[in-house]
């Protein structure tokens, strides 16, 4: 479970660590970035924000272009940037699509062959990775963890939060896939990772289905750009999540940001708001 | 002189324009990014900060990873991110080195064949590009312009400022090549673009040589990371510039930032300080 540190980079008064470790659940080496604010120490461990990236990304995109570190440094929060899938399992077809397989793990544990072999990003992100991090880095406070993410990673953040009441102090998302069972990206991924068991397996990883079952209230912050082509194409469906929230009496605030697209220019613009949202619950 | 806008991207309440235009001095199409803060209009034009990028970069690196836009939006400043050389001149050997030719124009007008053909980044940045921008974009105030840059672009910022008293309201630099005549990068570039006329041509593009001749005082802000390998290898030589400033009684403040490297993680950390430095003089 120990990490190899391949680079230590000074950033915003803290440091960005480039890490690699062997994962049991994915059976591969997994890479990630970890930002430690300058104030973090074993005697004053920092709370932790997980940032889950979207399709085609790795743990580098958010660390290089998301600009979470500026706000995280200010609030003394550590940020974890995991990869989006196992790499190098050599499953046939794994690298053929941008929206399935490599770079598209969807934060689920695949049950259908051949992806059930190592596409276990749900277990990796909720269990194996935090356990490994919190035992290796005493500068992290494993009892105070929040989660956010973008697009496929927004779906990941919402579903991991909703499936694990109490595990994460807060959740927010940028342009999340909010109702994957009803959009092309989600249908392709769930069909490939789960097969056609929509009632149980699909619904168990669909934020719009999960929200009504969540015990207690929620305070979910979501930003979506009105110029986002994937939003326009019906891949994100935040309205379905809003509708479910309204029916169930849960708190979901979707901010439709005028003219913003799906890129890191959108994410970086609102990154500070999402760090602040997490900070409220991490303090 | 008119620009083609290939993308308009919402960012920090303003917009990032991806532009292309035909340059007479380089004889090629040149690409760049332009950030317009949300407040900029023809009746309230924004002052302008040029950001000159370093070796191997294009106008995209700073726009995506430098994080100048956050601070520029706050101060109502536009930011121009030009390319670092002409592209596609098909000069033999042009693409062979990372530190000469493509991506390495050094912000000089080459006088030596074959680079004298179109490697005219000095004229392009000081004259042709601003003229074209200020006639095409009425949201820009061409009478209030500052300049900054990184590494080779830090050299560019310093020399363009020092060679053109009054043209730029202020200058700052990140890890600039401060005395190119005395470092391997500069010697290779100047030898290739100028030949061996060190006394005139080299000195005319060397910040350490130019500083004492600048009329009036200066207030130059420079950040250099103490963990920067290029600094350690003697490519940057900020001490030589400091020494020249001391002798000439000019203002140069070099901040040696503990442990920082040469990357955009370093630049993004201090970008806000440099925008603020420019803002003092642009208001």
From TrEMBL, chains A, B:
A molecular function GO annotation: S-formylglutathione hydrolase activity
Q: What is its main location?
A: cytoplasm
Reaction(s) catalysed (UniProt annotation): S-formylglutathione + H2O = formate + glutathione + H(+)
Task: Spell out the subcellular localization from the entry.
Answer: Cytoplasm
Q: Which InterPro entries match?
A: AB_hydrolase_fold, Esterase-like, S-formylglutathione_hydrol
Q: Name one Pfam family in it.
A: Esterase
State the superkingdom.
Answer: Eukaryota
A GO BP annotation: formaldehyde catabolic process
Is-annotated flag, keyword Hydrolase? Answer: yes
| Identification of the protein by name | S-formylglutathione hydrolase
What are the UniProt keywords, alphabetically? Cytoplasm, Hydrolase, Serine esterase
Residues of the active site? 151 (charge relay system), 228 (charge relay system), 262 (charge relay system)
Give the CC-aspect GO terms: cytosol
* Keyword Hydrolase listed: yes
The UniProt similarity line reads: Belongs to the esterase D family.
Q: What role does it play?
A: Serine hydrolase involved in the detoxification of formaldehyde.
Q: Enzyme group, top EC level?
A: hydrolase
Which E.C. number(s) belong to this protein?
A: 3.1.2.12
